[in-house]
Amino acid sequence: MTRVSPGALRLLALVLVLLLVGAFFASQIENYLNARLFNRISSSVAIVALIACAQTLVILTRNIDLSLGAVVGFTAYGTGALVTAVPDLHPALLALAALGIGAGFGLVNGLLVAYAGVPSIIVTLATMAIFRSALVEFSDAQSITTDSLPDWLVAFPNLQLFAIGGVQFRAAFVAAVVIVIFVHLALTRLRPARALYAVGSNPEAAEMAGIDVRRTVLAAFVAAGALAGLAGLFFLARFGNITVVAGLGFELKSIAAAVLGGVNIFGGAGTVVGALIGAILVDLIENSLVRWDLVSEFWREAVLGLLILSAVTGDALLMRRLQRLRIRRDKAAAPVPKEATP
Q1: Whole-prediction pTM value?
Q2: What are the residue boundaries of the structural domains of the chain, listed by start?
Q3: Which among 194, 180, 207 has a CA at the least distance from the CA of 114?
Q4: With b meaning 16 or more CB within 10 Å and e meaning fewer, what string describes 21-34?
Q5: Which residues is 242 bridged to in the sheet?
Q6: Can you tell me where the transmembrane regions are (predicted)?
Q7: CATH number among 3.40.1350, 1.10.10, 1.10.3470, 2.60.40, domain 22-325
């Protein structure tokens, strides 16, 4: 009989929770379960999935990035300004610009955390404010409007690639899923990417094994910044009208999606596929609360906070339980010392 890995069990449990949440809201909201629900959620999940994936890379190394929302906002405005100034810019070059802007912000965070030794929560809390202030100065109180963007960019999020029944699989959602799968394959197949798990599990042991811990942490922040930059481009394409508050609150969403997806907040465990499912769960709850008359939509942030607290607490209790079981199993397997014969 094959044993199911703890990671697979977590994913199965998360899918079960997702189904239970959907069943609950279906009992509360009239005409809830339909193709429009998937179409509506998939549009926003495309953005949240990318920042959840970005946050996962950082959390795996025992760090956290609170500046992702500001990076999304700045990149959305920056790429919007770029394509407005150069309307004929090739889509691939615009995507590279988004990746480059985000990676640059990630580089700043990574250098301060990995090489200056400043705790990531302090660094990214400060850079969140700095990056947001930089956006205010860069924008000069001007907004990017949908009218100034090329048609292909505005049409991209809702571009239907294929449909199954009334369920539409749109370009932005499919692209986000492909990117998450690519990152997942990198984390499971490539040795440099696997180093993130080693560093998060035990930095000292990783150092002794020949892994450059500081370089690995730096790479995690740069990759997270690049993914957040790409999310900023998706944000620009979906909303069109970009102001200085773009991306505000995505920090909380990214953390919620990651920890709900089974990523251990203490590092070293979790998958980006789980973070993707966590992003779907977060967006499902948010969209459902807007339609549920019994609860004010202003409770959405409180619900996200409660989900984060529950997920982290549950994960900590589970890890302690597993550690106790492992200690008991090791004691039971240990050979009993023989008594000395006279």
Answers
A1: 0.86
A2: 22-325
A3: 207
A4: ebeebeeeeeebee
A5: 144
A6: 41-60, 67-86, 92-118, 169-187, 217-237, 258-282, 302-319
A7: 1.10.3470
